[in-house]
Write a structure and sequence with these properties.
The complex is a heterodimer of chains A (about 110) and B (about 110). Helix content of chain A is about 0%, strand content about 55%. Chain A is mostly beta strands. Chain B has about 110 residues and is mostly beta strands. Helix content of chain B is about 0%, strand content about 55%.
């Protein structure tokens, strides 16, 4: 069966420090991969998605970047964190079926101080 | 572009009472529709989905949803709420590879 893992689960970082959140999927090949952010009291905002290795689409210009170095690995990064980067970050994958749903990881809570 | 509106930000119901969470979407054709649930500090879990066919869809945990094309709605229902149903619920519209989510409805359950 397919599984998705995110780490770290919780992160507290100072303003201006770098960020790396990692997401891996097991049990499937060539998934579509997504990064969403959930700020306090707000809905889900799509940040990036990827349909293949090295292929990244950005939905919202911001302080973050994403990379997909391997088929089932998706990384969210920042060179210098801002206070506004605080939030709950969710990775998700989707199979190739057009009508398929997204499957979400457990999330990573980032607090920027 | 598609959009999803969940008019109710918070809803409180008594345990054992019925529940209906509203969802309205905007899209030019019949979309793929989903309901997800999120417990605090957790990821999202799929409750149910609609692609085509029967407009009344059954999901996990005793939930169901009804697609009404004329009203552009996909409301979530449960006949009897349990305390463990307290969570945040998200409606989503799927178009191609993308899912667009509503703002969510936070459900609180009174004992």
């Amino acid at each position: 069966s397919q599984t998705i893992h995110q780490w770290p689960a919780t992160l507290v970082q100072p303003v201006g420090s770098p960020l790396s959140l990692e997401c891996t999927v097991e049990g499937t090949s060539n998934p579509n991969l997504y990064w969403y952010r959930q700020a306090a009291g707000r809905g889900l905002q799509l940040l990036f998605y990827s349909v293949g290795i090295g292929q990244i689409s950005s939905e919202v210009p911001q302080n973050l970047s994403a990379s997909r170095p391997q088929d089932r690995q998706f990384i969210l990064s920042s060179k210098k964190l801002l206070l506004s980067d605080s939030g709950f970050y969710l990775c998700a994958w989707k199979g190739l079926v057009v009508t398929g749903e997204l499957f979400f990881g457990e999330g990573s809570r980032l607090t920027v101080l | 572009a598609q959009s999803v509106t969940q008019p109710d930000i918070h809803i409180t119901v008594s345990e054992g009472a019925s529940l209906e969470l509203r969802c309205n979407y905007s899209y030019g054709a019949t979309p793929y529709l989903f309901w997800y649930v999120q417990s605090p500090g957790q990821g999202l879990q799929l409750l149910l989905k609609y692609f085509s066919g029967d407009t009344l869809v059954q999901g996990i945990k005793g939930f169901e949803a009804e697609f009404k094309r004329s009203q552009s709605s996909f409301n979530l229902r449960k006949p009897s709420v349990h305390w463990s149903d307290a969570a945040e619920y998200f409606c989503a519209v799927g178009v191609g590879n993308m899912l667009t989510f509503g703002g969510g409805t936070r459900l609180m359950v009174k004992p």
